[in-house]
Amino acid sequence: MIAYNNGWLDNLLVHDELKEAAAENDISEEEKCAALKAYPAGFYTPNLFIRIGLFVLTIIIVGFSFGLVSLMALSNANETTFGAISVFFGVVCYNILELMVQQKNHYKSGVDDALLCMAGVGTIGGINLISNIVFTTNCLLIFLLASYLLCRFVNALMAIISVVAFLLLVFFTYINFGYTAKATAPFLLLLLAAVIYFGAKYLSTQIVFRLYKPVFVFVEITALVCGYAGLNYFIVNQTANSLFGFTIQASRPLAFAWLFWILTILLPLVYIFRGVQKNDAVILRVGVILIPAIVFTIRNYYAVLPIEMAMVIGGIVMIGIGYGLIRYLAQPKFGFTSAALANINKTGNIHVEALIIAETFSGAQQPTSSDTNFGGGSLGGGGATGDF
Amino acid sequence: MMDSTLFTKLHAGGFISDASLEKIRMRAANQLFSLYWELRAILYIGVLLLSGGIGILIYKNIDSIGHTAILLFIALISAGSFAYCFKKSPAFSFQKVWPLNSFSDYILLLGCLTFISFVGFLQFQYQVFGNRLGLALFIPMVVLFLIAYYFDNLAILSLAITNLAAWAGIAITPAKILADNNFDNGSIIFTGLLLGIVLIAIGILTKQKKLKAHFEFTYTNFGTNISFISCLAAMMHFESSYLLWFVLLAGISYYFYVKAVKDKSFYFLLIMSLYAYVGVSYIIIRFLFYAIEGDIGGLAIACLYFISSAIWLILCLIKINKKFYDSI
């Protein structure tokens, strides 16, 4: 089923474990090299930056080829022609992708990623240009295509797209069944998300599906986030307003509002609890990321505090929690530690972190730099103190 | 993720020693779960909220609370943060120094941010620096550089460099470099180019003199991007002398190509290739549409150019990638 060489993919799993063990100094470098040789993987997988470059360039090639062909068909240009060309390109991309993967052994090389995306976008985009299909049909098409590509190429993006398309398809089909259906739709979504989450968890432990393990993580994340989104008070309120054709009344209370409020606040906490209980990084992180969603939802309806006080207090609380946990976990407890593990690529991450900090905080001093000062500023380097 | 069955198999195959297998089993039994990045994220958001909140607090209450009270409040937070870091941090050295823990990193960041607010407030309220607005940016910048070196903190160094750029009149961070700068302006272009070259030069010195050699990447990274972008902007802005600027672009590209090959840096290889590609493509497109004024035919040739050049560049990148790996 998987297009890539399955034996090599298995060996890559061995490589990961060996590299981790070597990073932790459990095995020596010689042992690692000897074992790596015994489990060869002949994929073409370049460095991450080369992968990005190849991705961009492949998109350029496909894009301009599309431009060139469209140019030739310019004389009788209409939507159908462009749609047909687009579908044609989608199919061609898919075939080149198969060729690249099977003949040239490309695996996560940027070329296969780009061709995969273009195959999907070309086909779906083209079909939409040719005929005016409705939203649910689109969801169905996207779901089918993305799941096929997911099964064949084990791609994380396709995993996310197929879960979202599936949930949207069910949701928009279900709400056609009248008032009760509309009212119960959020719970159906939660139920489905739970089924998908536990299904992915179960399957990822099965040896048959071991090669899909990395994408099951993305299926889990998407299911957790969608399950929460389906119940979040703000989202439910907004959706309900448009579905039931209410005139816009932002503060109109929902039926069973209390239930949605409880779930809005409770679900992320349940995620965090489950993550801590099971030592499961995925659900724990999703839970932590959803905490701001609780805060924003509450603040949207009830202005508890002026924003600046909320920020100051929130900031102090967060720093306090961080400090407390770092102190508490200085010696590992319950399998948790605050220290970095050796297999984390420290230096690379630190550069990214530094850039994020510079990006978010550099706005603070911008206002003082007025344009008038600019001319003198650049030569003021030596003169600034001298002038004084 | 540890699975000792694999290693048992490897052990049976004679790939790993008894001692190694024992270590693996020990670690698999005491599997630890690291919250390192989660905790850093919490501290980051905490500092983000707190410093932002204080900023709004000052802005809203600038007329009601006493200025001295506000000033004192910010100064206290800033001084407290710095005092904590001075007490906790390891001794200064021009080598790499690892901080004690994530907490002191972020307290240092809080101290720096509140210090910037402090200086900004002094200027706003009391015009301490008079009309010399540059000085209100210059002093925090110097302090940030000193702190970055003293505490060996890359995040503060990045802040200091952005401050240096702001003082020169340029926004330099990834998302703002194109959005906030008006590159259709000669003086911005020259400033950007000068700043880029200065930063690259500091990067070279940093590495040669071994003064915090690991800071080199940060300097070079900011320097490379701003000088490439300024150079490309110059090509498009100074129409009459665009070939001259192209020669400069080619020179910078060649320098970074040699550097990337020497340091085996895939990152610099990628950005150098992409910037150079934009430059070359600009020349080609310009030639097609300005010099020979090809319309539909020109468009077709342009498409053919992009297809063939991108294929060529892909082959080049694949070849260099292989060369780098072979020589490691």
Helix content of chain A: over 70%
* Unreliable segments of 5+ consecutive residues of chain B: none
Alpha-beta content class of chain B: mainly alpha
The percent of residues in helical segments of chain B reads: over 70%
Percent of residues in beta strands of chain B? under 5%
Q: Give the integer mean of the pLDDT values of chain A.
A: 80
Q: Count of helices of chain B?
A: 13
Low-confidence stretches of chain A: 364-388
Could you give the count of β-strands of chain A? 1
Q: What characteristic shape of chain A results from the CA principal axes?
A: globular
CA radius of gyration of chain B is 26 Å
The number of strands of chain B is 1
Rg of chain A is 26 Å
The run of helices and strands of chain B is HHEHHHHHHHHHHH
Question: What's the structural domain tally of chain B?
Answer: 3
Shape of chain B: flat
Largest sheet of chain B: none
Average of per-residue pLDDT values of chain B: 81
How much of the polypeptide of chain A forms β-strand, as a percent range?
under 5%
What does this protein look like?
The complex is a heterodimer of chains A (388) and B (328). Chain A is mainly α and 388 residues long. Chain A has 15 helices and one strand. Chain A has a domain at 309-361. The model of chain A is unreliable at 364-388 (pLDDT under 50). The model of chain B has no long low-confidence stretch (mean pLDDT 81). In chain B, α4 (67-88) runs antiparallel to α5 (102-126). Chain B is flat. The two termini of chain B are 28 Å apart. Chain B has three domains: 1-32; 36-168, no CATH class; 262-328. Chain B is mainly α. The interface between A and B is large, with 103 and 113 residues. β1 (336-337) of chain A pairs parallel with β1 (33-34) of chain B, so a sheet runs across the interface.
Task: Describe the secondary-structure layout.
The complex is a heterodimer of chains A (388) and B (328).
Chain A (H helix, E strand, L loop, with lengths): L5 H18 L5 H10 L9 H25 L6 H25 L7 H20 L4 H19 L2 H19 L4 H27 L7 H19 L1 H11 L13 H22 L2 H21 L5 H22 L7 E2 L8 H16 L9 H17 L1
Chain B lengths: L3 H9 L5 H12 L3 E2 L1 H26 L5 H22 L13 H25 L6 H19 L2 H15 L7 H4 L6 H23 L7 H22 L4 H22 L2 H26 L4 H32 L1
Helix pairs in contact in B: 1-2, 3-5, 4-5, 5-6, 6-7, 9-10, 10-11, 10-12, 11-12, 12-13
